[in-house]
Amino acid sequence: MPLKLEEVALEGDFQSITEVTWAAYEDPPQGIFHLLYPIWGEGPQARAEGLKDAEQRVKEDYQYDPSSKWLKVIDTESHQTAAVALWHIYESNPFVDDPPESLVEVDWWPEEGDGRKFIAMIADQMVRPRMLNHRRPHILLELMATHPNHRRQGAADLLMKWGLKKADEIGVDILLEASEMGKPLYEKYGFEVIARVDPNTSIPNPSKEWKRLEDLVAPSHW
């Protein structure tokens, strides 16, 4: 199966990027993903609306973040997007200032209930160590996803080799956060575990919604 690596333009095909990412994170299901990109309601229409909203958010983030670089791998026979990756290129220290008390504004979640507070707690535990420990030029792999129909066919390798080449060109390390599923790929390229993130969402007297969200994301670690 011939594969082709492409850099994604600012006005690029974010529909296929979103569709591949969702397919990858839903097989097997990773509950924390739909805290970041929720589906409101049930059925195909609700999912389609969730995808469209996620596509718009991803596109806007890309346009306003000069450090980011989306890449995708195309199956040149079927013309389908097989895999995608989001890299951040930091040629100078991106975290000069101390992190603020609140790191993430969870504006995609309804104000009522505990959802925003729950997601913000998890996001803080994921992002704050990055901001405190990575105060130097580096490349960050924020996301890599391969469509289930294209796994183990070399698409992820093309994305990794692009990042490794870029890191060599500018003389920096690559940092990433991996799930257990993705860990073997990164170890194949010589990456080593330097820390483990196990989000702690324990609070006194949690509400029913809080407990439901805990069940949704458990177990989660990177």
Describe this structure in words.
It is a single chain. This protein is α+β, with helices and mostly antiparallel strands. It contains seven helices and five strands. Strands 1-2-3-4-5 form a five-stranded mixed β-sheet. The protein is globular and about 55 Å long. The protein starts with a strand and ends in a 5-residue tail after the last helix. The mean pLDDT is 92.
| Unreliable runs | none
> What gap, in angstroms, lies between the N and C termini?
32 Å
N-to-C order of helices and strands: EHHHEEHEHEHH
The biggest sheet amounts to:
5 strands, mixed
Count of alpha and pi helical runs: 7
Strand percent estimate: 15-25%
Question: What's the short story on this structure?
Answer:
With 222 residues, the protein is of the alpha+beta class. A hairpin with a 4-residue loop joins strand 2 and strand 3. It is globular, with a radius of gyration of 18 Å.
Topology, element by element:
Layout: E1 3-7, H1 14-25, H2 33-36, H3 44-64, E2 68-75, E3 80-90, H4 115-133, E4 138-146, H5 155-170, E5 173-176, H6 183-188, H7 208-217
Helix pairs in contact: 1-3
